[in-house]
Every structure is written in structure tokens, then in C-alpha cells.
């Protein structure tokens, strides 16, 4: 293993079924494969890195996630190309997913960044960016 590479990310979600459905198609589109599934969680792997989604306990659901609070702001993934960003954008729109910064899309991150920004079911921001 190379020092500093990300090993895994674990995210607690408000509704595991809804989040697994949302993230499953997106991650699999990016080449991730289903790794594990159990009663309160599911994970996907790409190479040596994996992402885990775990159902949050009922007692912790009183305060919803917000990316502007202390903690995670967003996850960013590379697309294959600008065309791939466009294709995923079309799928997101067809699924009724909230696309962020529509008035600046696909250059919301600046003229050098071709990307789509959107929200997952818990309103976590996700970015799909084309390589330069």
C-alpha cells in the first residue's frame, strides 16, 4: 500500500435503503463493486478503497446532516470525461436528484472545473468532476 492513500470512508445515513439505492447506481457507474451488505449497512469498493453506509440509530436522527456544520462538506469523485459528467447529470435529472448551482453548471467550481454538484438523500453534497 502507498502511504497516505484513503483506506475507507464510513457514513451514517438516515435511511439505509434509500441511501443504498441512491449511492449504489452512482458508485457502480464509477466502477465500484458491492463489497458487503448486512442488516444495518452496505459497502462498495474500488481498488483498495471502500465506502460504507450505515443506518444511524433512531436516537441520533433528531438533528439532520448539513454540510455547513462542522464535519464533512462533500465527497468529490473523478468522472471519465466531460461527456461522462454530462451523462450522469442527465441521469440525475431524470431521477429528480437536486442539482446544485444550476445557474453555473457545469462550471460552478470555476472555468477550469467541469463538474456536476448534487445532493444525496440526506442532502450531502457530491461532486463528479472531469479530469483536466
TrEMBL record:
Domain (VOC): residue spans on this chain: 5-131
Keywords attached to this entry: Metal-binding
Molecular-function GO terms, alphabetical: metal ion binding
Pfam assignment, any one: Glyoxalase
Gene3D superfamilies assigned: 2,3-Dihydroxybiphenyl 1,2-Dioxygenase, domain 1
Presence of keyword Protein transport: no
Protein name: VOC domain-containing protein
